[in-house]
Write a structure and sequence with these properties.
By secondary structure, this protein is an all-beta fold. The protein has two domains: about 55 residues, no CATH class; about 375 residues, YVTN repeat-like/Quinoprotein amine dehydrogenase (Methylamine Dehydrogenase, Chain H, 7 Propeller). The protein contains two helices and 38 strands. It is globular and about 60 Å long. The structure holds zinc ion (ZN) (2 copies). The site of one zinc ion has 8 residues, from loops. The site of one zinc ion (ZN) has 8 residues, from loops.
Length: about 450
C-alpha cells in the first residue's frame, strides 16, 4: 500500500547515498544488500524494495515512493559466521536497575521494563546504545510486557504503530514508541483485578489482531482469561474453573493458549474455549520456585511456542520431560519426551535445545537430534544457538569462566572470558539483531548487556 500523497516530502532529504536520519549527513555502509548503517551516527536504515531509498529503521512507509517498508530478513547465519570478531570489538552496557521480565525485541532495538517502571531502549546501531525512552511508573515494576504493532489511522489510512503494552493491578496501558506517549486503555473497577505479577508466576500478555489477552479475577476469586478489544473498547471474560496458578497466555496457531497444573486451555478465534487434560503422569512446571535452581534468573517462561507447536517443560514420574503439543486445525495431539537435566536454550528457529554433560540435543517437532559433543560446555546453564554458532557457557568446578561461541561450519570456537564483564552472575538472554549479537545478563542484581557487531 502507498501513503505518498499524505506525506510532504519537500523539506526532507532525498539523497539515496546519505544517512536518512534528522541532523545527520553520514555516509552509509552496507550490512547486506537491503540494509546499511550510518558511519557517523551508526543508525540502521532499510532500503525500499521499490525505489531503493534508505528508510529509517522504524519507518512504516518509504519517504520517497510511499511503498511499505519491508523489514529485511538478514541471512544472519551467513553474516555472523563470516563477519563477527568476538576478540576485537564489543560494547558493554550497564542498566543500573533490575528487571522482572525479559527484554522484548522490536526491529533493531531491545526494550526493557525495569523494576522502577522505566522503559529503556537498547540499540546496537546507535551512538548512545542505551536510552531511557519513558516510564510507566512503579505500579509496573513486576509487570510482563510486549512490544507489538497496533493498527492506527493516519488521514483515514490504516497504518501500524509500535506500542509497548503492559498490565498492572488495575490497568492495561500502552506506550507509543514513535511519539513516546502513554495511553491508559483500561481501568478496572474495584470488584475486579488483573493478575500481573510476573515475579510470582509465569503470567504474560499477548496481542492478536487488535485484541489483548491477560488474566483477571473477580471479587469472589474467580479467574478469567480476559480479552480487550482495542478497537471497540469491549472487555470479554472467559471464566476458568481453576483455583490454582495459570501459565500464559500465549499465541499458538490461531488460538490463545494457557495451562494449569492439570490441563491446557485453548481459545478459538470464534470465542469458544476448549480444555484438554495433560497425560496422566505429566506435571508441568508452573511455580517460579521450581524453576529457580535450573535457571538462576527464572525469567524465561517454562514453555516455547513455535507456530502451531508448544513445548512445555515439566516432569513425568519425577524425571524431567518436555510435553510436545501440536495443533492442526482443531485437532490436538501431544507426546512426552524425556529431556536431559538442566535448562533449555532456543535455537535459531526457536526450538528448544538441551545440554547434558557431553552433548547438545535439539528438539524439532517430534524429532530430537544431537548437535555437538563438547565436554567443556556445562549443563547448568542454557546453551543458546544461533546457527552455525552455538553459544554455551564454560565453567570451572564452581563458576562460569567464559562464553563459548562454537562455529559448526569450520569446527572452531572462541571463548569470551566472563571477567571482561562487570560481576557476571547469570545469563539472561541472547538476541541477534540484523547482524549484531546481544547477550543480556544479571550482574550485581542489575542488568548488563554485551553487544558484538
Ligand atoms: Zn547518521
Ligand atoms: Zn521507495
Amino acid at each position: 500500500m502507498r501513503l505518498k500523497k499524505f506525506i510532504n516530502t519537500d523539506n526532507l532529504k532525498k539523497d539515496f547515498s546519505k544517512c536518512p536520519y534528522f541532523n545527520c549527513d553520514g555516509a552509509l555502509k552496507l550490512v547486506s544488500s537491503d540494509m546499511a548503517y550510518c558511519t557517523d551516527c551508526f543508525r540502521l536504515s532499510f532500503f525500499c524494495l521499490n525505489c531503493g531509498f534508505p528508510n529509517r529503521s522504524r519507518a512504516m512507509f518509504c519517504r520517497i515512493c510511499g511503498n511499505e517498508v519491508i523489514v529485511p530478513e538478514i541471512d544472519s547465519i551467513k553474516y555472523l559466521s563470516q563477519s563477527l570478531n568476538f576478540e576485537k570489538e564489543f560494547l558493554l552496557i550497564q542498566l543500573k536497575e533490575k528487571v522482572n521480565s525479559l527484554p522484548s525485541i522490536y526491529r533493531d532495538c531491545l526494550f526493557f521494563l525495569t523494576e522502577s517502571g522505566r522503559i529503556y531502549e537498547l540499540s546496537p546501531y546507535s551512538q548512545d546504545a542505551l536510552k531511557e525512552v519513558g516510564a510507566l511508573g512503579i505500579d509496573f515494576s513486576k509487570s510482563p510486557f510486549i512490544v507489538t504493532e497496533l493498527e492506527s489511522f493516519y488521514h483515514g489510512f490504516s497504518t501500524r504503530v509500535p506500542y509497548l503494552l503492559s498490565i498492572c493491578h488495575k490497568n492495561l496501558v500502552g506506550f507509543d514508541l514513535t511519539k513516546f506517549e502513554f495511553t491508559k486503555f483500561v481501568e478496572f473497577s474495584s470488584d475486579k483485578e488483573i493478575i500481573y505479577n510476573s515475579f510470582e508466576s509465569f503470567v504474560s500478555i499477548v496481542e492478536v489482531k487488535g485484541r489483548v489477552y491477560f488474566f483477571s479475577k473477580n471479587s469472589k476469586g474467580k479467574l478469567s482469561l480476559t480479552q480487550f478489544d482495542l478497537k471497540s473498547g469491549e472487555l470479554t471474560y472467559f471464566e476458568i474453573n481453576e483455583a490454582n496458578l495459570l501459565v500464559g497466555p500465549f499465541k499458538i496457531s490461531t488460538f490463545i493458549g494457557f495451562y494449569s497444573i492439570s490441563r491446557i486451555y485453548l481459545l478459538r478465534e470464534d470465542g469458544k474455549l476448549f480444555s484438554l487434560e495433560f497425560p496422566p503422569n505429566f506435571k508441568p512446571l508452573i511455580r517460579k520456585e521450581e524453576f529457580a535452581d535450573t535457571f538462576p534468573s527464572g525469567l524465561r517462561p517454562p514453555y516455547i511456542v513455535v507456530n502451531n507447536e508448544l513445548y512445555i517443560q515439566g516432569s513425568s514420574n519425577q524425571k524431567p520431560h518436555f510435553l510436545y503439543f501440536v495443533v492442526n486445525d482443531s485437532n490436538f495431539s501431544n507426546y512426552l519426551f524425556p529431556t536431559p537435566k538442566g535448562v533449555y536454550g532456543t535455537s535459531n528457529s526457536g526450538y528448544p535445545i538441551f545440554a547434558s554433560e557431553d552433548k547438545i540435543i535439539e528438539f524439532n517437532s517430534s524429532v530430537s537430534s544431537e548437535l555437538k559433543k563438547d565436554e567443556d560446555l556445562i549443563d547448568s546453564y542454557a546453551p543458546f544457538h544461533v546457527s552455525p554458532l552455538i553459544i554455551g557457557f564454560v565453567k570451572s568446578s564452581t563458576r562460569v569462566m567464559s562464553i563459548r561461541f562454537y562455529n559448526e561450519e569450520n569446527d572452531s570456537y572462541y571463548d569470551f572470558n566472563i571477567s571482561k564483564l562487570n560481576s557476571f552472575q547469570a545469563p539472561l538472554s541472547f538476541y541477534h539483531i540484523f547482524g549484531a549479537i546481544i547477550l543480556t545478563y544479571i550482574s550485581d542484581n542489575e542488568v548488563g548487556a554485551v553487544v558484538w557487531k
